[in-house]
Design a protein that fits this description.
single chain; 278 residues; alpha/beta; Rossmann fold; two-stranded antiparallel sheet; 7 helices; 26% strand
Length: 278
C-alpha cells in the first residue's frame, strides 16, 4: 500500500513538473517576462491554482529564493503555486539583486514588472489571477509595501515581512489594501522605527507611519486596532472598522530579522479567512 501511495505521489509531482516544462520554463529553468526573470513551482491538483509571489531580500535572487525549501514546500502543500521573481543587479561589482522599492526612474519599474510576470505566469501555468498574494522578506518586503501602496488592485493581498517603505513616505496610498505585515520586535536590520543606511544617504521609514497611510487608504474609522490576538510567539493587532474590501493586520514576534515559525500557515489562514479562496 505504501508503495502505491508513493508511486501516486511521484506521478502527481511528475505531472506538475511536465506541465511547467511544457511551457519552456519552470522548475530550475527561469521564465522571462516584463524585462526580467522568475522561477515557478506548481502544486499538485487541478488548475487554476492560487499563487504566492515571493520577493527575495537584498542580494538574493528568484533562484536562490526557491532554495528555501521549507517555505516552498509549505506553500505547495497548501495548494499554492510559488512564483519567485528576480530583482535587478545591485551593480558596483557586487553580485546578487535588489528591488526598485524607491521608484527610481533610472531603474526598471518593478511595480510594472511584477504585474507583468503575474500576468505571464497566469497564462503559461493556469494560475488564478484573482487569488495571488504578493509577499516578500526584507528588501522584498519593502517592494511588497511599495506594490501595496501603488497598485493595491493588482494582487488579492499583500504580506510583507521585515520590510518598510523608504523615506520620504508617500503622501497617500491608493486603496483599498489588504495587508498582513509581519515584523520582529528585536529586528536591528530593519527596525520597526526604521534607520539610516548607506552612510546616511537613505533612510528606512517608520512602520507605524506606513500603517497610518494604509488606515487612511482603507477608510478606517480610528487609529487603534479593533481586536488583538495573543499567541505563544506571535501577537496580532487587527483593524476591522474599515472600508469593505480592505483588511489590515500587524503580526509581531519576539525574534530579529527573520520570518517567524508558522508564518506560512498564519498568512494563508489569514488570506483564506478573507473569503478569497473557497
Amino acid at each position: 500500500m505504501l508503495r502505491v501511495v508513493a508511486a501516486l505521489a511521484f506521478l502527481m509531482t511528475a505531472a506538475a513538473s511536465s506541465a511547467a516544462t511544457a511551457q519552456g520554463c519552470g522548475g530550475p529553468a527561469p521564465c522571462e517576462a516584463g524585462g526580467g526573470l522568475y522561477h515557478i513551482e506548481l502544486p499538485e491538483g487541478d488548475a487554476p491554482h492560487p499563487a504566492v509571489i515571493y520577493l527575495h531580500g537584498w542580494g538574493g535572487s528568484g533562484e536562490g529564493q526557491m532554495k528555501n525549501r521549507g517555505l516552498v514546500k509549505a506553500l505547495l502543500a497548501r495548494g499554492y503555486a510559488v512564483v519567485a521573481p528576480t530583482g535587478q543587479p545591485r551593480g558596483g561589482g557586487r553580485g546578487g539583486y535588489r528591488w526598485n522599492a524607491f521608484g527610481t526612474d533610472a531603474m526598471r519599474d518593478d511595480v510594472t514588472f511584477l504585474r507583468e510576470i503575474a500576468d505571464d505566469a497566469t497564462k503559461r501555468f493556469e494560475l488564478d489571477r484573482c487569488l495571488m498574494v504578493l509577499a516578500g522578506f526584507s528588501g522584498g518586503g519593502m517592494m511588497t509595501w511599495r506594490g501595496a501602496c501603488d497598485m493595491p488592485e493588482s494582487f488579492a493581498a499583500y504580506a510583507p515581512v521585515s520590510g518598510l517603505l523608504w523615506r520620504p513616505l508617500p503622501d497617500a496610498c491608493a486603496g483599498p489594501i489588504r495587508m498582513l505585515h509581519t515584523h520582529g520586535w528585536s529586528d536591528k536590520v530593519v527596525p520597526i522605527e526604521g534607520r539610516s543606511v548607506a552612510g546616511g544617504r537613505i533612510t528606512q521609514g517608520d512602520l507605524f507611519e506606513g500603517l497610518d497611510l494604509i488606515r487612511r487608504a482603507n477608510g478606517c474609522r480610528k487609529d487603534d486596532p479593533d481586536a488583538y490576538e495573543m499567541g505563544e510567539t506571535i501577537w496580532r493587532r487587527i483593524w476591522t472598522d474599515c472600508a469593505p474590501g480592505s483588511a489590515l493586520e500587524l503580526a509581531l514576534h519576539p525574534g530579529a530579522h527573520a520570518s517567524p515559525r508558522g508564518w506560512t500557515a498564519m498568512t494563508l489562514d489569514w488570506f483564506e479567512g478573507l473569503g478569497a479562496v473557497q
